[in-house]
Design brief:
By secondary structure, this protein is of the alpha+beta class. The chain has 3 domains: 74 residues, Arc Repressor Mutant, subunit A; 94 residues, YebC, transcriptional regulation domain (Alpha-Beta Plaits, 2-Layer Sandwich); 72 residues, YebC, transcriptional regulation domain (Alpha-Beta Plaits). Helix content is 47%, strand content 22%. The chain has a 4-stranded antiparallel beta sheet. The protein has a 4-stranded antiparallel beta sheet with strand order 5-6-4-7. A hairpin with a 3-residue loop joins β5 and β6. α2 packs antiparallel against α3. The protein is globular, with a radius of gyration of 18 Å. The two termini are 26 Å apart. The mean pLDDT is 88.
Length: 250
């Protein structure tokens, strides 16, 4: 998990590669709209919507923004569609892109263009499934946990596979099938979560030269800046040399 944790640290240091708060809001609003389309506008009976609302609160999204997104989704029966794209970037690094779109042709064309222009290639869906495992990832402000030892015992019993504690937050990882159970456990414990989501975690990391790594990170930036893209995953090993080069390039 070290590569994943390094990536999380880099994103925090840079203010997150998602960068702007408005972009973060946009992505969460899209997730709420898809959740409403799939399971209705009542969060009590729609776990996916309840999770999206929780994540919205975690980034301090105003209540009126949340309710507006739910109302809009409930009225708009067409909604957004989920799409995934798999391929390779410079140096053969695997890249998995998740998108929500109201125009499939536009999104396919844009994602393919980004891959091509930055020295990558888009493959067929399913071609990278063996490289990534879907895991539940929970981010919890350290201040929300009163007794760390008791907390760790409780969450390990509920399926926590990895717990990474920093000065400001706790990042906890579960198997995908334990995601819902962990959400319930945290609610029982009264622990507020800043963010909870299913992520694609690489099961093997690839090391490349610093110059290639910087090209790859610019490619990831281009994906993440696209309005249709929700998440980008990769199996790049963030070495100390690459991290230093990233900081120097800022």
């Amino acid at each position: 998990m070290s590569g994943h944790n390094k990536w999380s640290t880099i994103k925090r240091k840079k203010g997150a590669l998602d960068a702007k708060r408005s972009k973060m809001f946009s992505r969460i609003i899209k997730e709420m709209m898809v959740a409403v389309k799939d399971g209705g506008p009542d969060p009590d009976s729609n776990p996916r919507l309840r999770l999206a609302i929780n994540n919205a609160k975690g980034v301090n999204m105003p209540k009126e923004n949340i309710q507006r997104a739910i109302n809009k989704a409930d009225q708009d029966k067409n909604g957004l569609q989920e799409m995934t794209f798999e391929g390779y970037g410079p140096g053969g690094v695997a890249i998995f892109v998740e998108a929500l779109t109201d125009n499939n042709n536009r999104t396919v064309s844009t994602i393919r263009s980004i891959y091509t222009k930055k020295g990558g290639s888009m493959g067929t869906n399913g071609s990278l499934s063996f490289l990534f495992d879907r895991k539940g990832v929970f981010t919890i402000p350290i201040a929300n946990v009163k007794n760390m030892e008791e907390f760790e015992l409780e969450v390990i019993d509920s399926g926590a596979e990895d717990i990474d504690v920093s000065d400001e937050s706790i990042e906890m990882i579960t198997a995908m099938e334990d995601f819902g159970r962990m959400m319930k456990k945290l609610e029982e414990l009264g622990v507020e979560v800043e963010n909870a989501e299913l992520r694609r975690i690489p099961n093997d990391l690839k090391t490349v030269d610093v110059s290639v790594g910087l090209k790859l990170l610019r490619l990831i930036d281009d994906f993440e800046e696209n309005d249709d893209v929700q998440s980008v995953y990769h199996n790049l090993e963030l070495t100390e040399e690459l991290m230093a080069a990233m900081e120097a390039a800022e």
